[in-house]
Amino acid sequence: MATNDTDWTLESVRQLTAMAREGIPVSVMSLKLRRPIESVAAKLSQLGITPTPEPGA
After folding, report:
1. What single string gives the DSSP state of each residue in 3-27?
2. Which sign does the torsion angle of CA 22, 25, 29, 35 carry?
3. What pLDDT score was predicted for residue 2?
4. What is the mean pLDDT of the chain?
5. Does a structural domain hold residue 24?
6. Residue 5: pLDDT above 70?
């Protein structure tokens, strides 16, 4: 059974980590990467990266 995490390319992971370093919220990352918020949050967690809190949260 395939999951959203199986199709993360090296380039996608590089983009994700770069955006995380810049402090971009998960909701914006998901839009830029065209992935569900849950998938982006799961990948960040897998990589040991704490996401930036959403604005207004």
Report:
1. -GGGG--HHHHHHHHHHHHTT--HH
2. positive
3. 44
4. 89
5. yes
6. no
